[in-house]
Amino acid sequence: MQAVEIPTKQKNWLDLIKYKPYAFGLETGFTDLSDIHNDWIKTFLFSGEDITLQAHRGSYKTTCLSIAIAIMLVAYPKENIIMLRKADDDVKEVVNQIGKMLQTDFFQQMAYELYGTQLVLTKQSAVEIDTNLKATARGTSQLLGMGIGGSLTGKHGDIIVTDDIINLQDRISRATRERTKLVYQELQNIKNPGGRFINTGTPWHIEDAFDLMPNPHKFSVYDTGLLANTEIQKLRELMTPSLFAANYELKHIADQNAMFTNPIIDDGTNTEMLFDGIAHIDAAYGGEDNTAFTIAKQHGDTIYVYGKMWQKHVEDCLGEILYYHKEYRAGTIYNEFNADKGYLNRTLNARNIPAETYHEGENKFMKIATILRREWANIIFIDGTDPEYISQVLDFTENAQHDDAPDSLASILRVFEKKGKSNFGTTYKALRKGLGRR
C-alpha cells in the first residue's frame, strides 16, 4: 500500500506538537516556559502509561497541563478528558484558561490547517468544553472538569487528569487525606479500557494520596532551575523545614521541634457550640505580620475554636472580623494594649463592640508552649477555620518566623484561665516549673 503523503503545513503542525509543544504556550502568552516544561507537556501528550508529575510549588505544572489539554482537544478529537481539582472554583479557573487558548489565532490556525475547518467551541461552560472537531458519538463532552467532591456516578473518561487534588487541607487534616485517597481510588472505576491517568501536584504530607499514584516523575526546586539561590533561601526562611522540604524538595522530614500535630477539625455539625464565646485579635500593623482572629467557647474539657488570618493591617480586615464576630454570636473581643496603646480597643468600643485590653507581660514562647500545648488535644477547630491559621499553629517552634495564630489562640485560652473556667492555672505553673521557668 502506498504511503499517504501528509501536506507540508499539516506536517509542520504535527512536528510542532510532537517536538516543541511548549510553543503553544509561548504563543498564547505563557512566556516563562522553558525546555523542562516542553518535556512535561510531551509526557502529558504521549505517555502510554499512567504518570504522576510531582514538582515544587510555582513551577508552572498547571500551566503545562492546560496547554497539553488544549492541544489534546484538537489533536485527539476521539478521546474525552475528565479533569479533577480540589474544588469547583479551581476547576473553573483552568477550564476558562483552556477555552481562551483554543480561541487564540494560533490554535485556530492549527485546527484549520489540520482539518480544513474553523475551530468552534460548541459547548463552553465553567466546567465543560466541546468543539466541532469532536469525533465520537458519545454524549460526554471532550473536557469535563470537576471538584473532588462531585459525583463520579455514570462518568467515564479516556484520559483522567488530577491536578492539585492534594493541598494544604491534606496537610492539616487526616480526614481530608483519607477522603482524597478514597476519591482517587474511585477514579480507577471511571477510566475507559485503554485509558490513562495524568496526575500532577505537590506533596504536603507523608501520608497523602501521592502514595497511591503510580510512575512518579519528581522535580525539586533544585532540578528545575526556575528559582535563583536567593529566592530559594528566602522561601526557606519563611516556613518550617518540614514544609519547605515537602513543597520544594519533594521529601518528608520530621520537624523535631514541632509542638502541635494532628489537629481535630469539626465536620460542620458542631458550629453552634461556638456561639456565645469570646474572641481575640492579634493585630498586625504592617510588614509581613498577619492579623489573626480567634473565637473560642469552652464546654467542659472541650474547647471549640474558630480562626481566621489575613496578611493585612488590622484596619484593612476589621470589617471581616466584625462580620465573623456577629456570624458566630461572639461576645467580648480581647486585644493587646502594648502594640497600639489601646487604639484598636477604642475603635471597637466606638462601634459598640464589647472589647477589653490587656498588657502582655508574658514571654510569647512560654505562653504558647504551656497553655496551648496543654490544651491542644481538647481543641476542636470549627469547620471553616482558615487552613492557613491551623497550618501556622502546626508550624510553631521557638524560632518560628510567624506566630500570630498560635499567639492569638494561646491568649484566648489564657482568658479562660483567668476567669477560673478551667484548670489551666495549676497546669500552667507545673509546666513552667518543668521547663525550668519560674
Overall body shape: elongated
Output mean pLDDT: 90
How far is the N terminus from the C terminus?
Answer: 93 Å
Low-confidence parts, pLDDT < 50 over ≥5 residues?
A: 421-438
Class derived from helix and strand content: alpha/beta
Number of strands: 15
Largest sheet: 8 strands, mixed
- Portion in beta strands: 15-25%
List the total number of helices: 17
3D structure, described in words:
The protein is of the alpha/beta class and 438 residues long. The chain contains 17 helices and 15 strands. The protein has helices at 8-19, 23-26, 35-46, 61-75, 88-102, 105-115, 168-172, 174-187, 221-224, 229-238, 241-248, 314-327, 343-350, 364-375, 387-394, 404-418, 424-434; strands at residues 51-55, 81-85, 121-124, 128-131, 143-147, 157-163, 191-201, 216-219, 264-265, 278-282, 291-299, 302-310, 333-336, 355-358, 379-381. The strands form 2 sheets. The chain has an 8-stranded mixed sheet with strand order 3-4-5-2-6-7-1-8. The chain has a 7-stranded mixed sheet with strand order 9-15-12-11-10-13-14, sandwiched between helices.
What descriptive keywords fit this protein?
about 450 residues, alpha/beta, 8-stranded mixed beta sheet, disordered C terminus
Describe the secondary-structure layout:
Layout: H1 8-19, H2 23-26, H3 35-46, E1 51-55, H4 61-75, E2 81-85, H5 88-102, H6 105-115, E3 121-124, E4 128-131, E5 143-147, E6 157-163, H7 168-172, H8 174-187, E7 191-201, E8 216-219, H9 221-224, H10 229-238, H11 241-248, E9 264-265, E10 278-282, E11 291-299, E12 302-310, H12 314-327, E13 333-336, H13 343-350, E14 355-358, H14 364-375, E15 379-381, H15 387-394, H16 404-418, H17 424-434
Parallel strand pairs: 1-7, 1-8, 2-5, 2-6, 6-7, 9-15, 10-13, 12-15, 13-14
Antiparallel strand pairs: 3-4, 4-5, 10-11, 11-12
Helix pairs in contact: 3-4, 4-5, 14-16, 14-17
